[in-house]
Amino acid sequence: MGSEWVGHRPHPALHGLVAAATGYRQEGLAPGLHRGLPSPTLTFVVTLDDPLEMAAHPDPGQAPGSYAGLVGGLHTAPALIRHPGRQAGVQLALTPLGARRLLGLPAGALASLDCPVGDVLGADGVELIERFRAAAGWPARFAVLEEVLLRRVRPDSAPAPEVTEAWRLTVASGGRLRVAEIAGRVGWSERHLLSRFRAETGLAPKEAARVARFSRARRALQARAGAGQALDLAGLAAAGGFADQAHLTREWRALTGLPPSRWLAEEFGYVQDGRSPVSTI
Questions:
Q1: CATH code for residues 4-152
Q2: What is the 8-class DSSP label of residue 187?
Q3: What's the chain's average pLDDT?
């Protein structure tokens, strides 16, 4: 099996819009299914060679499909991606609060949906895919991505400051703050916060807290497994703000479809799970 992972530091003008960028190429895998998991960022994938085969979307009402490029909104259920033993492309993690400036729509418009890049970006998306696939080497591919995305950045389109602060508090606390406390801090009622927060991000405040808590726990579990340390799920639950190990396992199963240990056994090592790149450009 051969693997190539290339991290890229996004252009400064994309700060706050693109949280991470990773190029990947894997070959010689056993054909199977990979899980796309809930996270605090939108998914933006452009493939090389084979398209992305979505066997199931977070929204069960969305039909399976094939994508040369995909933009996925925030969600609380796993997606299933079918691969033939190889996968290659680039994945960007887009911030939900930057969606208006970069995509021209709020992240709430993409809640639990996976959409073709061309449907979201229009002609820019079609151009991006064609030029990305024709580019030779990772520096040229990332240059194409950024050239197209930079021209789309809108300087005067941002969410309400209260939503921005509520999102920051939710993520920074790892989902530990209660909604009432966040509402009080931003000066809104819980009901108003719920409505505006969900419309902007695609998640209700409690859902965002679940995703933030899970995302932090997932990274910690992967780090422990990668370092050869004991998984210590009880300790992970206590450190992550879960009531106990049983709560952690229930949440893991709800958000990934699998309990933690089985998820590690089936998924560890794929790019969407945040494995560290071997080089950075």
A1: 2.60.120
A2: T
A3: 93
Contact 204, 197 (CB under 8 A): yes
CB 34 within 8 A of CB 270: yes
Give pLDDT tens digits for 169-218: 999 999 999 999 999 999 999 999 999 999 999 999 999 999 999 999 99
Q: Yes or no: say if 99 and 62 are a contact pair by the CB < 8 Å rule.
A: no
Full strand arrangement of the beta sheet holding 2-8: 114-116, 69-72, 42-47, 87-94, 18-27, 2-8, 279-280
CATH class of 159-280: mainly alpha
DSSP string, 245-274: HHHHHHHHHHHHSS-HHHHHHHHTT-GGGT
Give me the sheet containing 79-83, strands edge to edge. Answer: 32-36, 79-83, 52-56, 65-67
What does the domain layout of the chain look like in residue ranges? Answer: 4-152, 159-280
Distance in Å from the first CA to the final CA of the chain: 23
Bridge partners for 18 per DSSP: 94
Are 48 and 89 spatial neighbours (Cβ–Cβ below 8 Å)?
yes
